[in-house]
Specification:
The protein has 234 residues and is of the alpha+beta class. It has three domains: 11-55, no CATH class; 72-142, no CATH class; 155-233, GCC-box Binding Domain (2-Layer Sandwich). It has eight helices and nine strands. A four-stranded antiparallel beta sheet has the order 1-2-3-4. A three-stranded antiparallel beta sheet has the order 7-8-9. The radius of gyration is 26 Å and the shape is elongated. InterPro entries: DNA-bd_dom_sf. It comes from Desulfitobacterium dehalogenans (strain ATCC 51507 / DSM 9161 / JW/IU-DC1). This is AP2 domain-containing protein.
């Protein structure tokens, strides 16, 4: 007989070994608790080999997700998910140079599991009028770096131009005045937000303008007026 190995407290996938149970023939059995709350008696060999890593809920979730994807291949969210992966991992995709070639990826949670992305989207303000937007364009697709935004918000949040010398979107150095200018563009209209001695101050004004636009629930026209007032006082 092999040496007894105490598995109490050890984690195997979603299962945590609680205590030894009555043997079944020559098999050593353990009472385990699943992350979902269910308890089940499982052979130690199946735990150690990785053959069993949940009470059965993982398999049910996998089947449910597979059925969902099969039945919702035309859904907009499914299309968004597939397009993200193409941009990041298919070198033949026309947008790959701006995504995958720059090291932009999907987090493992989303890349391997559509339902994980789907649940995040529904819980974080998804609607058919919005598109997925990366808050920091130099980082990938992950819950902490993504939001649902209007096309205008995405236009404001574009990647920094190659000819930008300050390294800050919406802030440029005016060599004639010897100051930093903060500005923002909405629907092709450029709003100057003021000239500043320091880069930090100009950057703050630009960031404030972005927040004013993104979080303001008023109409676009009201936002344009608001930003116009900001530029007048800058």
């Amino acid at each position: 007989m092999g040496r007894f190995i105490n598995l109490s407290g050890q984690k195997f996938g979603r299962l945590t070994a609680i205590e030894r149970a009555e043997n079944r023939g020559t098999k050593t059995m353990w009472l385990c608790e699943c992350d979902c709350g269910n308890r089940k008696i499982i052979a130690a060999g199946d735990l150690g080999s990785g053959r069993t890593n949940s009470c059965g809920c993982l398999r049910k979730e996998y089947v449910a997700a597979k059925n969902y994807i099969h039945g919702h291949t035309d859904d907009r969210l499914n299309s968004i998910w597939r397009d993200m992966k193409k941009r990041c991992y298919n070198p033949r995709n026309k947008s790959y140079k701006d995504y995958g070639a720059r090291g932009i990826e999907l987090c493992n949670e989303w890349r391997n599991d559509f339902m994980s992305f789907y649940k995040w989207a529904i819980a974080n303000g998804y609607s058919d009028e919005l598109s997925i937007d990366r808050i920091d364009n130099d980082k990938g697709y992950e819950p902490s770096n993504c939001r649902w935004a209007t096309r205008l918000t995405q236009n404001i949040n574009q990647r920094i131009r190659k000819d930008n010398k300050t390294g800050v979107r919406g802030v440029r150095w005016d060599k004639n005045l010897g100051k930093y200018e903060a500005f923002i563009s909405i629907k092709g209209v450029r709003f100057g937000l003021g000239f500043f001695e320091g880069l930090d101050e100009a950057t703050k004004v630009r960031r404030d303008a972005e927040k004013q636009y993104h979080f303001n629930n008023e109409s676009t026209e009201s936002l344009v007026i608001c930003l116009g007032e900001m530029s007048d006082t800058g």
